[in-house]
Amino acid sequence: MKTINKLSSYKELSSTVADIIEYQIQKEPLSRLVLPTGSTPLGLYEELVNRELDWSSIMTFNLDVYIMNPNHPQSYQTFMKKHFFNKINIYPNRCHFPDRNVEVYEQLLRIDFNTLPDLCILGIGTNGHIAFNEPGSSFDSRTRVVSLSEQTIKDNSRFFDSIEDVPKQAITIGLKTIMGSKKIVLMANGKHKKDILEQAMYGKITEDVPASILQKHDNVEVFYCD
Ligand code: GLP
Predict the structure, then answer these.
(1) Would you say the C-alpha torsion 126, 103, 146, 165 has a positive or negative sign?
(2) Is the pTM of the predicted complex or chain greater than 0.85?
(3) pLDDT in tens, 1-15
(4) How far is Cα 1 from Cα 64, in angstroms, rounded to an integer?
């Protein structure tokens, strides 16, 4: 069981997680961060941009990407550039996204540097997914191509012109890969996330609720606002 820290506003959620990232990159300028997309971290990225931190030796790894043209306005590559990377002094060649060379990504994340990612920031889907590890994903999963669940396609259709435009497949880092991070922070925003978050943090640890695996990690912080 993990504590769900309830914050008073979305602004506080964003600044609390920004504080954790700021502390990490100042303590360790060579940090390797695993980063999320979705609507939840938008305020976090805005807050980090405003803080004008030094990102010049930081390396980032995104959690997941849709299988689609990376230049599409709704691709996660475009999202990260638009909301974050183009606004900070990070080197583009230090910003990594999963691609079909899944083993190479996995290797980059955990073997090549002979160390584990320092900090992984996560959101949570309404069905309990983390990254694009949908319900039923193995707790032993690594970076791979996945099919999105109907629920996720429906939830994410708000970003597209129509539900038919939502990609059906994605590449995601695995649950085991996520668990390899030294520290994990889970962010959830909105009443519609409350039930699944409580199920994940207080309920049974089961592959039916992928985020429940986080109960087994000894350095996880969970922040929620409604
Ligand atoms: C997508 C992402 C997840 C994210 C989830 C929640 O499905 N792949 O990593 O956690 O959306 O999104 P939102 O923050 O928009 O609710």
Answers:
(1) positive
(2) yes
(3) 899 999 999 999 999
(4) 26
Catalytic residue among 129, 155, 156, 189: 129
Q: Does residue 156's CB lie within 6 angstroms of at least one atom of ligand 1?
A: yes
pLDDT of residue 114: 58
> Does residue 120 contact residue 214 with C-beta atoms inside 8 Å?
no
Calculate mean pLDDT across residues 59-70.
97
Q: How many Å apart are CA 179 and CA 202, to the nearest integer?
A: 18
Measured CA to CA, the distance from residue 35 to residue 120 in angstroms comes to 6
Question: Is-contact 42 87, C-beta < 8 A?
Answer: no
Helix (H) or strand (E) run with residue 60 in it: strand 59-62
CA-based nearest residue to 216, from 180, 167, 168, 187: 180
**Closest CA to ligand 1's atom 1:** 38
Would you say the CB of residue 36 lies under 6 angstroms from ligand 1? yes
The answer to whether residue 64 is catalytic is: yes
